Task: structure prediction
Amino acid sequence: MHHFFVSPSQIGEKEIKIEGSDVNHIKNVLRMRPGEELRLCNGLDNKDYRCEIAEIREDVVLARILWIEESGVELPSRVYLFQGLPKSDKMELIIQKAVELGVYEIIPMSTSRAVVKLEPKKAEAKLRRWNAISESAAKQSKRMVIPKVGPVMSFSEAMKYAQDLDVKLIPYELAKDMEKTRKLLREITPGQSVGIFIGPEGGFEGQEVELALQQGAQPITLGRRILRTETAGMTVLSVLMFLLENR
Result:
């Protein structure tokens, strides 16, 4: 069943208005017709609107609400990925896979060893592109919310943004105790907010790690092998999804 996102203002008591580029996609790409069913979500909560197309107009599709479900698709904890800016287009892959794995929000970080430095104009274009990728991945994976990709922050700004999170994790190549890491991850409970800090290709500077530890971040190990920046975040997210799902 095809899946689309709408804003809360488009949702009425019995009918939902689909507007914008999705109208063309429904009419001319999918060639849907009145009477066909689709799934609609507002991208903010866990409600799944099962609808039937009532009418297709030039610039709007009217969908009749058949029933509303409370979906269990989302993870029971909000997981924030703080990702050091990687080179080339790796960020696009990171966003796509992080959304599939259940991340709640992605915060790109400009760190000391990050090679990529975005100019303001390029940053705006990148941000639009990244959020479009997040929305596409949310549709594909049947998510009920669209994870936000926020503006690029410095490492210190990111730590301040994360100060109220219940758990902060920083994978670090010098961390050694795997049993401590297992215990720490297993102790995360549904409802807790979790921040994951991932460095760019060169990793974090020692001063950044020290700042993170001072702010309550817990260093964890991801094993004996050195993982690429595009692999590390997905590894932690995969473990958290496995531990938190249906708990």
The chain has a mean pLDDT of 91.
